[in-house]
Design brief:
Blueprint: H1 29-36, E1 38-43, H2 47-61, E2 73-75, E3 86-89, H3 96-102, H4 105-115, E4 119-129, E5 137-140, E6 149-150, E7 154-160, E8 171-173, H5 201-205, E9 210-211, E10 218-223, E11 228-230, E12 239-248, E13 252-253
Antiparallel strand pairs: 1-10, 2-3, 3-4, 4-12, 5-11, 6-13, 7-10, 7-12, 8-9, 8-11
């Protein structure tokens, strides 16, 4: 783990890992994403990168780890209804492995394809559910937390650090829900199905979860309006995931308040850019 603020570096730090894989997206991925609001990708990271991510996460989750102000949020347990849900934002500023994941070309290229242009980092996240007692993440739309930015041009990549299954609490998506209006916001540690009381009859009829099971190292992408959540982990297997939230270049601030904890405010109407919202293009253009 580094003491330097790694947000100062807008390129991969460890160039010794060479796991550039085949394209993450299939030929029909854009069409599927447009129709459903999510798409499963292929292998996004190789074994060596996966090992380093797990190693750095284990250090962050250890009892003697002391998070500092580089994290936007750090919750050793965000669960409120039993179980354990580790949740952190800002690991890219602390961990070389999570920093370099943000700039990993196969993932960035897929994000550019799905968002239709150059992309910037909005922020990263980590969610971890330990075996036997892992908490849930209640149904929600990411955009309900991101109304401080505009327009809606956001995309999330979820990368499995363990095999993700229904048994250990994989992410579930509601196909087509990205076309729904923005729902009243709940909390991530709310009652799992609290959102059902906020749906109309047509939405309840369309509420058919799709379980995004995948092997470790694989990924999925979803629209910021797509309703999603994950159930508790009662299995013998941990379920850890890294998240990269992208914005299309040109997304602007809609608030004079800081967009992320500890980050200088971006005035209303100005686009997100600079140290904390780097351009992630892979063409070598100036960032």
């Amino acid at each position: 783990m580094q003491t330097t603020d790694l947000s100062e570096f807008h390129h991969p730090i460890d160039i010794t890992i060479e796991d550039r894989s085949l394209p993450v997206l299939s030929n029909d991925a854009v069409e599927f994403f447009s129709e459903n609001g999510f798409v499963l990708g292929g292998q996004a990271v190789g074994a060596e990168r996966l090992d380093r991510l797990r190693r750095d996460l284990a250090e962050m989750m250890s009892d003697n780890f002391e998070p500092d102000q580089r994290f936007y949020e750090f919750h050793s347990n965000e669960a409120e209804s039993g179980g354990v849900l580790f949740h952190a934002l800002g690991a890219w500023r602390v961990s070389p492995a999570f920093h370099d994941l943000v700039f990993h070309s196969p993932i960035v290229e897929a994000a550019e394809t799905l968002l239709g242009g150059p992309v910037r980092l909005w922020h990263d996240q980590i969610f971890a559910k330990p075996a036997n007692d892992g908490g849930f993440v209640a149904w929600h739309q990411d955009q309900s937390y991101w109304t401080r930015t505009e327009p809606v041009a956001h995309l999330t990549c979820w990368i499995a650090l363990d095999d993700a299954s229904e048994e250990n609490g994989c992410v579930n998506y509601i196909p087509g829900s990205h076309r729904w209006p923005l729902l009243p916001r709940g909390e991530l540690a709310d009652v799992m199905d609290a959102v059902l009381s906020r749906l109309n009859d047509d939405q309840r009829a369309a509420f058919r979860p799709f379980a995004a099971e995948m092997p470790a190292g694989h990924c999925s992408f979803h629209h910021s309006m797509t309703l999603h959540g994950s159930f508790a982990n009662r299995s013998q297997q941990s379920r850890r995931g890294a998240v990269i939230n992208f914005i299309r270049d040109g997304v602007r601030s809609a608030s004079d308040e800081p967009l992320l904890e500890g980050v200088p405010a971006v005035p209303i109407g100005e686009k997100l850019q600079g140290q904390f919202f780097p351009l992630l293009n892979v063409s070598g253009e100036k960032r």
